[in-house]
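lol forgot to send this yesterday, sorry. struct tokens for the thing we talked abt
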């Protein structure tokens, strides 16, 4: 039985990719890694192929043509993970904004404590964000307030992208019907898990903004999330969420 798979979408992450893979592979718990590269012109995919010669059993690469969106990358990865039989599937960024060592804490929250979804949370214990300008911190924090108000979820960091899902969650959520492909995707996945009444917990983390490469975040992405929340709430009134 395969246990842990960390899914890392990439686009132009040549400055980070080798270090992040080596760090994950060095952890006290065993994690396989799946890189989903959207045709990075900087050679990210090529570097992963080189590392596969070293990590022959644990490092996987799927190359896609062009930037197809964060959500579509994760959906593809989720389906791949389920097909391969992984029990715990993780989302993580390539740029060290998520500390790979916290993967072990997410794993223990799911495996030992029995939660279905474990979220690496920036806001469960105050505001734990490093190197963000105050405007971005406030935008992110109050986006969470807005999401909780509209959806009824109690999750303090609904937009966060550092997560562990039990395979049962991803088998239950109709992945082909996930609507959003940007960062609203993160809210939509959590909202589905909430509606299906899975047990969700938040594990406090410190989020450190990238020091290498270029951020993919923009105000457009946040706008998508804000307006998407209303749409998600409306369609939830017309669907059944039984498992």
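and heres what i got for the seq, position by position
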């Amino acid at each position: 039985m395969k246990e842990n798979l960390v899914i890392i979408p990439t686009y132009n992450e040549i400055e980070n990719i080798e270090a992040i893979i080596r760090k994950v592979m060095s952890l006290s718990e065993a994690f396989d890694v799946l890189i989903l590269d959207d045709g990075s012109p900087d050679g990210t995919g090529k570097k992963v192929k080189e590392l596969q010669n070293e990590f022959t059993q644990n490092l996987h690469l799927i190359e896609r043509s062009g930037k197809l969106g964060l959500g579509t990358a994760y959906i593809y990865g989720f389906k791949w993970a389920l097909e391969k039989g992984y029990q715990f599937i993780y989302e993580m960024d390539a740029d060290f904004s998520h500390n790979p060592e916290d993967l072990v804490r997410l794993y223990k929250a799911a495996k030992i404590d029995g939660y279905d979804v474990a979220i690496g949370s920036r806001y469960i214990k105050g505001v734990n964000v490093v190197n963000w300008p105050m405007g971005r911190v406030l935008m992110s924090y109050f986006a969470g307030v807005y999401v909780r108000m509209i959806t009824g979820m109690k999750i303090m960091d609904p937009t966060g992208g550092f997560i562990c899902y039990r395979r049962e969650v991803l088998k239950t959520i109709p992945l082909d019907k996930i609507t959003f492909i940007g960062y609203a995707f993160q809210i939509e996945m959590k909202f589905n898990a909430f509606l299906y009444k899975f047990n969700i917990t938040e594990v406090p983390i410190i989020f450190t903004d990238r020091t290498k490469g270029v951020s993919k975040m923009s105000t457009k992405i946040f706008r998508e999330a804000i307006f998407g929340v209303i749409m998600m709430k409306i369609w939830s009134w017309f669907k059944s969420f039984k498992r």
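The two ends are 24 Å apart (CA to CA). anyway ping me if u want another try
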